[in-house]
Amino acid sequence: DRPPRLLRAFISPGEGEVDREEVDNSATQRTIRVMQWNILAQALGEGMDSFVNCPLEALNWAERKYLILEEILTYRPHILCLQEVDHYYDTFQPILAGLGYRGNFCPKPWSPCLDVEGNNGPDGCALFYDEARFDLVDSVNVRLCAVLIPTNQVAVVTTLRCRVTGRRLCVAVTHLKARSGWECLRSAQGSDLLRNLTTLTQSPGGPSGPTGIAPDTPLLVCGDFNAVPSEDVYQRFASSPLILDSAYKRLSRDGLSEPAYTTWKIRPTGECCTTLDYIWYSREAFSVDAVLDMPTEEQIGPNRLPSYNYPSDHLSLVCDFSFKKQEEDHM
Ligand code: NDP
Ligand code: CA
Q1: How far is the C-alpha of 113 from the C-alpha of 120, rounded, in Å?
Q2: pLDDT (mean) for 96-111
Q3: Backbone angles phi, psi at 8, to 5 degrees
Q4: Does any domain span residue 93?
Q5: Does residue 127 contact residue 81 with C-beta atoms inside 8 Å?
C-alpha cells in the first residue's frame, strides 16, 4: 500500500516532452545519461536530520535501499554521481558492480555520520560509470582546501574514455559545506575544485606539453553545492574560464533560470524548499538533449521529503548529453 513512484518526464530543451524510446537509435547510442543525487546518508537521516513529517519507519534501511536502487535503475544512467553515501562497501559497490558499474568512493575525513550511534562508517561522494560504455583513464580523490587549509569536504574526479565515440571526458562529484553562514567556505571550496579541475583536464600534450595545442578534456561536474544560484560559488562556476553551464537551466522557459527546488524538507526550524544541486557541463563540448523534469509540489506531497515514496530529501537530477560534432574525434 505504498504510494506510487514519482513519475517524471524527460524534457527536450526547446521541444517539450520527449519519449526517450522514440529517439532514433544512433542518437540514443551516443547519449550519455548522467545522474546527480544526494541520496541522504542513512546515519544522518535516522540520527541527525529530524525531518519532522517523515516517520522513522519510512527511513528503515532494509526498505529504503531498494527505493534508492529503484530510482537509479529507473533511469539507468551511464554516469552516477552520489553524495552522502554511507553504504558504499556493503551495498552500492557490490550491487552496482553486478549491474555493470564500476565506482570510486571518497569518504569525508570527519563525517558527521560517525557521531551517530550504530553508524555504518563515514559518508562520502561516490562516482559510478557504466563499464560497457567507458574505459577508465584515471580517478583521483580530492580533499578540498580553503585558502590552503584542508577542509572536511571532498570530490572524486574520474577521467573516462567513451567507447562509442573514443572521446575523453572528465567527471567530478562533490558535496560542499552545508548550512547558512558558510558561504565564504563554499566559495573557497568551489575555487579549489575549479583549480584542481583545470589541472586535471589539461591533457599531457596540452599547451605546456611537447606537441603544442591539444584540447582540454570536456567536463561534467555534479554536486550538492549547498548553495543557491545567487551565491558566490555558483557565480564562480558560471563564470569560470573552464566555460561551464548548468544543465538544469535548460528546463526553464527562458533557458536562464534554475528550477525552483532540488530539495524540499521540513525540519523543526521550518520548511526548506531550495535549489542546491547542479550538473555543470562544458558548454562548448556537450549539448543537452534532455533533462528529467522536477516533480510537482502535488507529487512531492504535503509532508515533503523524504517520504514513503521517495527515499531522500534531495531530488535526483538526470540529463542526457551528447558530444557536439568535432572535425575529428580524438582517440
Ligand atoms: P556540514 O555542515 O557540511 O553538514 C554535514 C551534513 O549535515 C550534510 O550532509 C548536510 O546535509 C547535513 N545537514 C545540513 N543541515 C542540517 C541540519 N539543519 N540538520 C541536520 N543535518 C544537516 O558538516 P561538516 O562536513 O562540516 O561536518 C560537521 C560535523 O563533522 C561535525 O558535527 C562534527 O561531528 C564532525 N567534525 C569533526 C571534527 C573533529 O575534529 N572531530 C572536525 C570537523 C568535523 P545537506 O548537504 O543535504 O544539507
Ligand atoms: Ca543531507
Answers
A1: 8
A2: 98
A3: -130, 140
A4: yes
A5: yes
**Which one, of 103, 79, 81, lies nearest residue 91 by Cα?**
103
Domain ranges, residue 248: 10-20+27-323
d(CA 73, CA 68): 9
Higher pLDDT, 331 or 132: 132
- The answer to the question of residue 4 being in a domain is no
Instruction: Give the domain CATH number at 291.
Output: 3.60.10.10
Residue 312: inside a domain: yes
Cell numbers of 52, please? 519532522
Summarize the confidence of residues 290-296 as an average pLDDT.
98
Which amino acid residue places its CA nearest to atom 43 of ligand 1? 110
Mean pLDDT of 284-310: 97
Hey, whose CA ends up nearest to atom 36 of ligand 1? 110
Residue 169 has pLDDT above 60, yes or no: yes
Residue 183 Cα to ligand 1 midpoint, Å, equals: 14
Q: How confident is the model at residue 214 (pLDDT cuts 50, 70, 90)?
A: very low
Residue 1 included in any domain:
no
Please tell me the predicted confidence (pLDDT) of residue 2.
Answer: 64
Q: In this structure, which residue's CA is closest to atom 1 in ligand 1?
A: 178
Number of domains in the chain: 1
